[in-house]
Amino acid sequence: MPFEIADDPGTDYRELVRTAYDRCAEAYAGQRLTAAGPELDWITGRLTAGSRILDVGCGSGAPVTRHLAASFEVTGIDISSGMIALARKNAPAAGFVTGDVMEIDFPAGGFDGIVSFYAVFHISREFHLDLFRRFARWLRPGGLLLVTLAEKDDGPGYTEEAFFGETMYWSNFGPSTYRKLLAEAGFRIEREGVVRGGYDGVEAQEEVHPIYLAARAANQPPAGPS
Description:
Oligomer: single chain
Radius of gyration: 16 Å
């Protein structure tokens, strides 16, 4: 069975994600799209050169981190050390941190923009509001957020057995819930749309079309747990 409900209390699903990406880093990176998509124009067109951007779940650094680092001061964070090793080669102008975005903290107001492509749905959805609150705290007032999210409706977390030869974990709400969570975290959505899946090739058996939400942080992010 290729998909299974992820409800085993004895399984550390964050560790599963980290290990899977470490093992498939080269294969995954080899199938990534090589050019950044036009959805990035929303954030790059609203920030001045040298602005500080955090790339959450930066993966191999290509194409998103590399594209952003050509004009901005970019910090990439990823849970997989294997992916970070590739990112340092693919985007040498950026800085990188290996770690869990739910455990590592950054200075309040330290970034002008945050992007996160194909990453949030690898974190258990029970933590997504806390994640968005973290984003709001790390952004300066009026800072920008560009995040891709699952297009599927709410459903239980699950594992996929054949993700570049590894078992991968997924968890998400539906788009309507994400609109509410972002508002609760202090964001005003300014644009939304659909993006292609992040990779091509034989592993992309089924074309994926995540949604993206582009939002601006409130002047005073609401207080809340991180």
